[in-house]
Amino acid sequence: MEKLDHILMPLGLQLKNDKPKDLRNFTFNWLRETYGDKLTKNENQRLELEYLRKKVPELESHLLEGSSKNIPALKDHFDQFDELQMEEDSDSSETSSDDDDVIVDENFLLPKPVKKTVEEALREIESETSRISVSAEVYGEYNKRSSFKPVSNPKPEDTCERLRARLSSHWMFKCLEAEDMDTLVDAMQEEVFTAGDTVVKEGDKGNKLYIVDNGSFNCIKENYDGSEKLLKVYNEGEMFGELALIYNCDRTATVYSCETCKAFSLDRQTFNHIISGNTIERNERYLKMLGNVPILKTLDKYEKSRILDVCDYETYNDGDYIIREGDTGEDFYILLKGDAVATKSHESYEEDQKVKEYTSGDYFGERALIKNTPRAANIIATGSCKCLKLNRLDFKKFLGSIEHILKRNMKIYISFIS
What is the pTM of this model? Predict the structure, then answer.
């Protein structure tokens, strides 16, 4: 399915960040915003974008399920275009048009690039029968991982803080762990440009993204008649060039410096290692942790992946209360890193008494997934720690009633409702 990952990866990250209630409408709107206003180089690209916008509900349904049982449906869905495609090819060889606008008929002929992509994807599904969730990671040509050692470009701490803040404001990076963010910041290279320098050229291979540190850059697009159109001016703190890294595509516009400017660049290899490689490995660890929770034991891997899609990541400092005794419980936690302690009030003592210690991989608050009963104890961080937090309403929205899932194992169900 790697041929479709240039769409699934950024869409999955956006779904993870926004947690939309209406998955289908969100996906449609995201495609429209991402692709709808882009100028394309040729007719096939424009047809491809139009096709994706119109067919995204059906594609989404099949791809999210992603199993071999969908192959006949997918083939039937696309085979209907074969005859029409042949007719179009025949007509286009006999006639031509100088019109700039592309008219797409009601049948929405399948563009050749999309048809080829689908055929290759179907062959892969048949051989692998793999499943895909909305958090699917990109496995494109540029993402084949080997021995990787990130580059290091030391910077003053104030510069590092500035870059962290700017990366964190971008949807693609806001959920990164602290160590991954530090790796990105450390790898970023300072680059200085003089007025008129071309930083990104339309049609070139894209191997870097840039964050503007000072100055401004013009983003222009060449029209079909050779004239240029100003699309945007990038100012301090803004990012450009990331699309080529996300989609593994050529540069879609040209960017040049308006004055003497400074920007920080991030190379493709580091970007891919952090965004795809580390995320995959980390999610595998978290899936194993979820499998150790009795209340979630009956979930299959796909359902656990869906949980990760709706989880939040929380960090706490020494002495912070993760849970307070008596509060209404709505969240379940897995301790990913660090340690915590459970304390409980007792009428015989003035101070709360320690009743349990937690370390990495432990979990607490699981009864909150069933009902919002008051918390029975405090959970306090001992040192810096990080938790995976799952909200009961988010769980129910994506996987349904927890009681229904627990009933797959009646023994566990009885233990939690008693």
Answer: 0.45
